[in-house]
Write a structure and sequence with these properties.
CATH class of the largest domain: Alpha Beta
Largest sheet: 4 strands, antiparallel
Number of helices: 4
Distance between the termini: 34 Å
């Protein structure tokens, strides 16, 4: 066996091992270790461990971790899933961080030719029509986020939720959409050093 990573977590060692191809029991043990790591995703101390963060697919941006989820769900489901993480919510702060926006663009999360990939974010006008608010209470005007041409348009009088419509090297372009539509989504969690 070749050791890939050894992470000390509260006197518990999680060992991930690469298989040398000769043992099925090793495969089961590695799968069990991976399942254990995924269960730790709900433990907020996990977010301070850079190895586990990477293994779980999260990216870091200042004091926030963010992750793109390729499950097509409505806005309410996306918001609930993101809120299920400690200090979690749909993406807000990460969209106002220039470096994170460049990372989102370079990973090509958004495919303009496939609507469902355009992820939900935490920006809505559910309380007062036409007054969009970030889920974290952050500033509504920022250099890295802007409305796509002609947006918001509240088409059909029922577009209260927001998706990332497209990206450029330095900006995220937003679009208002009916909350019942199905889209991928992007979560973030606050972390503190």
């Amino acid at each position: 066996m070749q050791r890939i990573a050894n992470v000390d977590r509260n006197k518990t060692t999680i060992a991930l091992e690469a298989l040398n191809g000769s043992s099925r029991s090793n495969l089961y043990r590695v799968n069990a270790d991976i399942a254990d790591i995924k269960r730790k995703q709900d433990d907020e101390s996990t977010y301070r461990d850079p190895v586990l963060v990477k293994l779980l697919g999260w990216q870091r941006s200042e004091n926030v971790l963010f992750k793109y989820f390729p499950d097509a769900v409505n806005y309410g489901t996306a918001r609930a899933r993101c809120s299920g993480y400690p200090r979690g919510r749909l993406a807000t702060k990460v969209l106002r961080d220039p470096q994170a926006v460049r990372d989102i663009n370079s990973r090509r999360y958004v495919d303009v030719n496939e609507d469902v990939t355009q992820p939900w974010v935490g920006y809505v006008d559910l309380v007062v029509e036409g007054t969009f608010k970030w889920a974290d209470g952050g500033s509504t005007n920022h250099a890295t986020t802007t409305w796509h041409g002609g947006q918001p348009d509240d088409a059909g009088g029922n577009e209260d939720c927001v998706e990332i419509l497209t990206t450029s090297a330095e900006k995220v372009y937003l679009n208002d959409l009916t909350c019942s539509d199905h889209r991928h989504y992007m979560c973030e969690v606050d972390i503190y050093s």
